[in-house]
Amino acid sequence: MMNLVRANKLPATALLFIVLLIIVGLSASWISPYDPFQTNHHEKLLPPSLSHPFGTDYLGRDLLSRVLHGISDSVFPVFAVLSVVMLIGLLVGALSAFWGSKLDMLMMSVTDIFTALPNVLLTIVVVGFLGFGMENVYFAVILSWWAKYVRLIRGLILDVKKEPYIIASRVSGSFGMRTIIRHMIPNIAPQIGTMLILDVSKVILTLSGLSFLGIGAQPPSPEWGVMLLDGKNYLQVAPWMGFFPGFMIFLTACSFQIVGERLRRGK
């Protein structure tokens, strides 16, 4: 019993952190001690203190306030991006597995092209072609991620199609989109949910990495990748500028990964 408690302590802590992160992100406007965009040249590069727990940056902006507001720019868009990816995967994967034949061959050929390309490389190429801007970045991430979900959902639905109750539904003549929505999708939802949670950390790292490279979010956004980029030039004189946003990226990515792995193992 004690081993079970110890085994679940880390996932429970990670889940608690995620819940608190979402709550803080939603209430950042009320709980932030300062305006995240307000500059104060008299308080530039102040180290962490009681008045500024995370210190200030090169423009005198409070880093704690920027980190808190950065949740809405660094984490929340990931949920929207992955939701779109999941919907595309459900639509294309279900139709491909359901009707099969030529449509299946065509869709699998297209997905093979996208899955053969590294996600980050494809994202950078698409952003470079479309131009900078978060709308283009989100579109590029969706474009580089959808094929993975199509393949997963197609495989899951092909497995579910072999179940006796699905075969019985097919024999009775009611095998159609209603069967997919009412019976197939609920049965594969746990696997899709687990994959989504595991991918949150990857997409967070991707978006932050693109911002750090200067092709994602742009200053004065409090997005954590942008804050890392700002702190890069002040590592020797103000290391806290890069430490706190970097640590938040690390904690957030690790928390989603831990929860996802716990769900994947199902123990």
UniProtKB/TrEMBL annotation:
Top-level division of the source organism's lineage: Bacteria
Subcellular location: Cell membrane
Cell membrane in keyword set: yes
Coiled-coil stretches: none
Membrane-topology descriptor: Multi-pass membrane protein
Transmembrane residue ranges: 12-31, 75-99, 120-145, 237-259
Gene3D superfamilies membership: MetI-like (1.10.3720.10)
ABC transmembrane type-1 domain sequence ranges: 71-260
UniProt keyword annotation of Transport present: yes
Keywords, alphabetical: Cell membrane, Membrane, Transmembrane, Transmembrane helix, Transport
Pfam families reported for this sequence: BPD_transp_1, OppC_N
Family: Belongs to the binding-protein-dependent transport system permease family.
Xref: PANTHER family: D,D-DIPEPTIDE TRANSPORT SYSTEM PERMEASE PROTEIN DDPC-RELATED, OLIGOPEPTIDE TRANSPORT SYSTEM PERMEASE PROTEIN APPC
UniProt-recorded name of the protein: ABC transporter permease
Organism, scientific name: Paenibacillus terreus
